[in-house]
Amino acid sequence: MKTTDVQNQRIAQMTFSSVYPHYVIKVENKGRTKQELHEVIEWLTGFSNKTLNQLIEEKVTFEKFFERASLNPNAKLITGVICGYRVEEIDNPLTQKVRYLDKLVDELAKGRKMEKVLRS
Predict the structure, then answer these.
(1) InterPro entries annotated for this entry (predicted)?
(2) Which helix (H) or strand (E) segment is 86 a member of?
């Protein structure tokens, strides 16, 4: 799916630390834990809790966040609609990675079993 350059730039320059608290609230309001959220983020990016906290403190943009990440090879198994877009059809690689993360957080909040969220 085609995203606009303006959308892609906006996402690239957004800081991870500005979105992270919303992820935490979303999953905790649905009975999941911050630790489960970190497990999902680590699965996708390879970031340990320590590294994740450093990135939050540094206020890195999503662009820098995913430049430093080691994307899980099974990330391509993440499919479905998030924010009106099919994640597997997003043509901008960075926007697709951000939407992968959004999709995983959404699945976690909806109560999916962790092994399904982590595509194992």
Answers:
(1) SP1917_dom_sf, UCP033199
(2) strand 85-86
